[in-house]
Each structure stands twice: as structure tokens, then as C-alpha cells.
Amino acid sequence: MPPVFALVDCNNFYASCEGVFNPILEGKPIVVLSNNDGCVVARSNEAKALGVRMGVPEFQIRPLLRAHHVQVFSSNYTLYGDMSQRVMETLEQFCPDLEVYSIDEAFLSLVGFAQCDLTEYGRQIRRTVKQWTGIPVSVGIAETKTLAKLANRMAKQTSDTDRVFDMLAYQDREALLNGVAVGEVWEIGPSYARLLTQHGITTALQLREADESWIQRHMGVVGLRVVAELNGHSCLDLEACPAPKQGITCSRAFGRSVSTLAEMEEAVSCYVSRAAEKLRGEGLAATVLTVFIMTNAFTDEPQYRNSVTCELPVGTVSTSELIRAGLKGLRRIYRDGYRYKKAGVMCTALVPADQVQPDLFDRQDHPKSKRLMAALDAINDRWGAGTLDYASNGLTKAWQTQSHHRSPAYTTDWDELPVANA
DNA sequence: TCTGGGGTCCTAGGACCC
DNA sequence: TCTGGGGTCCTAGGACCC
Fold first, then answer.
1. Are A352 and A305 in contact (CB under 8 A)?
2. How many CB atoms lie within 10 A of CB A337?
3. For residues A282 and A302, what is the distance between their CA atoms, to the nearest angstrom?
4. Nearest CA to A312 among A265, A347, A260?
5. CB A55 within 7 Å, strand B
6. Among A12, A79, A130, A155, which one is least packed by beta carbons within 10 Å?
7. Which pairing describes strands A164-166 and A137-142: parallel, antiparallel, or unpaired?
8. pLDDT of residue A107
9. Which nucleotides of C are covered by protein (CB under 7 A)?
10. At A409, is the pLDDT very low, low, confident or very high (cuts 50, 70, 90)?
């Protein structure tokens, strides 16, 4: 049976999450900012209508935000992650073959539903998700993932009450693709869009018809795949089980610049702790740790950036071992006399935590360390992040990321439950 | 007068995604 | 003053081997 994909995408996801528990925001312009309250990462329709662009730094549009009383939120990933899970669980009720593609998108394989009215099924999905979670979604349906992505874009252009588009049921495919700029196609980013436009390929239809050897030469196999998918040949399968992660990163810009090794050590120690928590959450152990630091590239100040990679003798999930390695690396690359803006750590060469290759000369008491980490995670999970912390993470954390507009953890903290007023 | 060829592995950088 | 974070995949080129 030929494949059929539906792409379900939450509309303005972060902004919608903020709206769910704060109904007075209905109909108002909302923006959500990235970490450090830096850039706009989500906008409600009303904010889009005001011309607020995606990714724009907040300080550049501050007057506009004020003038139109735009509601501004710091990002609240605890809330968004939980809402995402609710949406995905709802979608599972409609279709067991589901790929969670990102925090706000999922592909569904509708192969077995061919005899249904797929448009109507899409509407049912949309209604149910809205009713159960409060999140509005759009549904795009087509025979490849790339076309389902485009169908989803078209769904977003339909009326507010519909937001479902089934490309399979649409007669004039050529006209449809002719109306799509080449840069709107999945996997065609700014660089490829420029290249294609220079060669006279400006629409999805022209890309579909493009000369394959030219595409192969300039865009490699990725380009060929896009062309095939636009032609209705499915190259990208539904991936129901996510592949194990290849790396785990924790990096963040500082709330203000850091100019002492002591503060940088605190920051790196904190980031390592967070990365180690994520490792344990995924059941993975790291055998390589990379630390990087950098100054603020947006200023004229003297610039410095460097990184160091440490191979760990044995794959580990132990926060203290990783902190030790991270700080040792940091001291190798840290240079006095700079104003640092950002640091980060990456754990790579990951292996399943229960299949760590032992080392003959390893003196660590691993069972003990494992119990310690389990206790640490359990306590922080029960009583809140940071309840138990390493001394090297520092007490004041004066360099920490800013978030001045954070909404409550409505769904994951008893103390922050929303209150319904009669 | 004249510098092999073919294979693998690794890494850095570039492209993309949300 | 203020400019995000976390990922993936592909490719070219160098190192190395026989």
C-alpha cells in the first residue's frame, strides 16, 4: 500500500501553551522569548499581525511591544515539555504509528486509514487535541513527509475553524506547488534557496522538475531526496522509535559577562551537572566531554573562543567525575582578560549506561556512585531542581541566565497549579 | 626526467531542522 | 545594556595503509 503521512503541528506552540492557562490572553498579542530573554521564538497570530518577526532580538522591538501591549513571556520549557507530552498522548489515540518529530510536531502514518475520509479524520484529530489539551493544531496530509509538510503550511492558511489540508484530495497539484516559494520546502534553507534561485528555480514546482544531475552535484543526496519526495516518491520513513542520541549538550549565554576563572568554573560545573542529569535521564554514559567558552561576538571587545575535548577513561554518568574532568579542561583553555558571554559542555561518544566498557585500572566504586546519583536525582525530582547541588556549582550564580517573564509551572508543580475563579 | 592507486577512517565545516 | 539552545546528516579533504 502506498504510504500516507499526516503532519500534525501545534500552532504557535509556546505562545499557545501560555494562553491555555491564562485565558485573558485570548485574542491578545503574545511573544515568547528564548533563553536569557534574548530573541523572539514564538508569536501568537496577533503578534505576527503586528509584524513581529521570528528570531528578532527583543531589545530591537521593545518600543513596538510596549506600544501594542504585547504580552511577553520568558520560555518555560517545563510547561511546554509537559503540554507536548499531552498532545502526543492524544495523537496516539488516533494512530499508533506516530513519530514525535519535535516538541510541537508529529508525523502519523495513515496507510491503514485509506478507506476513511482523511480530511474528516484530520478534523476529528484537531477537535480532540483542542478539547483535551487546549492546544490548536494544523493537519497536513500527503503521500510523502515533505509533501505533508507543505500540506501543513496550506492547512495553516485555511480558515481558523478548519486547518486541515489533504493534498491527496486536491486536484491541481501543479498549481499548488507553483504557489510555493522554493525556500518554503522542507530541507531548503537560506543557502540552498539562494543557490536555486540563482539558477532560476524559484518554486516548489520548478524544484520538482529540476535536472537531477545538477541537483546531485550541488546539493548531494539531500537534494535528490527532496526532489523525489516532491514527486511523490517517499524516501523518508516514519521513525516510530527515536534513534539513541549521539550527543548531549548544555550551553547557555550568561546573564552578564564573566571575567573570573572562579565564576567560569561555577558555570561550567553547573552545565556539566545539568548534562549529567540529562545523560542519566536517557540511560546513557559519556566517554568524551567537550568544554567551550566564548566572548560576545556582537561587541567590538577583544574576542576569544576555545574548546577542549577530554576523553574519559571509562564511560560515566557520575556528576562528580564529569565535573572534575570539565574543570580540568576549562583551566587549560581559560585566559584572563576577556569578558566571556557564553560557555557550554558537550557529552559525546555516548554508550548505553549498562554496557560501559570497564577499565582494568579503574579504582572507582561504581555501584556506590550509581546509588549516589540515583538518590540525587530522586531528591531533585521530588523536591525540585537544585534541592541538592554540588558546592562547585556555586551559591549565588550571579552570572546566570535572565528570565524576567517566566510563567508558572502550571502543570508540573503543586504550588503553581492554575486557580479557577468562579 | 619526472612523482601509483585505491581503500578506509577521522575530522572540520557546512547545511539543515525545530 | 540587551542578540537562544539543542540537535542531525553530509561532504571534502587529510592521514594512513597496503
1. no
2. 7
3. 39
4. A347
5. no
6. A130
7. parallel
8. 98
9. 1-12
10. confident
